[in-house]
Amino acid sequence: MIEKVLARQDGVITAAQAREAGLTHRVIERRVNSGAWRRVARGLYVAVDRPFTDEARARCAVWSTGSGVLSGAGAAFWLGLTTYLVPVIEVTVPRTASGRSASGVRRRRRTLDPADVVELRGVRVTRLELTVLEASTVLGQQLVDRQLQRRATLPALRRAQDRNARRHGHRVAERYLRAAEGGARSEAERLAVRLLTAGGLTGWEVNHPFGGYVIDIAFPALRLAIEIDGWAFHSDSTVFHRDRRRQNVLVRHWTVLRYIWHDLTHRPDEVLAEIRRFVTRVQ
């Protein structure tokens, strides 16, 4: 039975679980003294006959705190949103929790709403929405974008954000969320305008009408359309299909270059160079 528990839990086991499986305190100590098990915290052990995986490391981080909840980028790993476990794992513990953080573990002290916590594979972890918001402060706004296209919804993200209004990283997540709720497109357009202006490019105009649609930024003489995609359009079926129809109309008459918020904030020089290359080539 003990082997089944270890296999199910990535080689990690607590003293309480070992006793439930039939091991006495003396037997547990014998396994530790013989080197079969390694004690990683009080009442927490790993079997040394198997690799110490990222999954095992995440379990140890949470279980070493007793009542902790895997949070942030570590929670993103546990939920399958990323494939890489960060070196320092964040665990949220109650404000009244005692003890110090183990090596490689960062404790965040606050009381989580039960609506933001779920147990998955024996580990308490923040739910998808809070995980996306908290992990985005480390992994970037592209995590929000990606999950809006997959599993998350804007209303659920907003509810999680409002329930956790004063947590660490709240302001960064709020900026990403407001962008996703509709501000990204307009703010990204302003960034694009500033980029073109600073780059000395001329001959363009904003909100150029064509074929019953409006082009975000157009070089009419060159038939070059610069389209700025907001995040939320990916997760809204109606907007998505309208955007596809609009794209089909434009590409019959224009060269279309598309950018998102991440492009304009993380690689603006590359964006400007790409636009400049096209402008120079056709002038």
Number of strands: 12
Could you tell me the mean pLDDT? 87
Count of helical segments?
A: 12
Strand order of the largest sheet: 9-10-11-12
Helix content: 40-55%
Instruction: Report the major sheet.
Output: 4 strands, mixed
> Overall 3D geometry?
elongated
> Helix/strand-derived class?
alpha+beta
Q: Which ranges are low-confidence, i.e. pLDDT below 50, for 5 or more consecutive residues?
A: 232-237
Overall tally of domains: 3
As a whole number of angstroms, the C-alpha radius of gyration is 25 Å
N-to-C CA distance: 75 Å
In terms of DSSP E residues, the strand content is 15-25%
SSE string, helix = H, strand = E? Answer: HEHHEEHEHEEEEHHHHEEEHEHH
Topology:
Layout lengths: L1 H7 L3 E3 H6 L4 H10 L2 E5 L2 E4 L6 H10 L5 E3 H7 L10 E5 L11 E5 L7 E4 L2 E4 L1 H12 L2 H7 L5 H10 L6 H29 L6 E6 L2 E7 L4 E6 L7 H15 L3 E6 H6 L1 H15 L1
Parallel strand pairs: 5-6, 11-12
Antiparallel strand pairs: 1-3, 2-3, 4-5, 7-8, 9-10, 10-11
Pfam family, one: MTES_1575
InterPro entries: AbiEi_N, Restrct_endonuc-II-like, Restrct_endonuc-II-like_dom
Protein name: DUF559 domain-containing protein
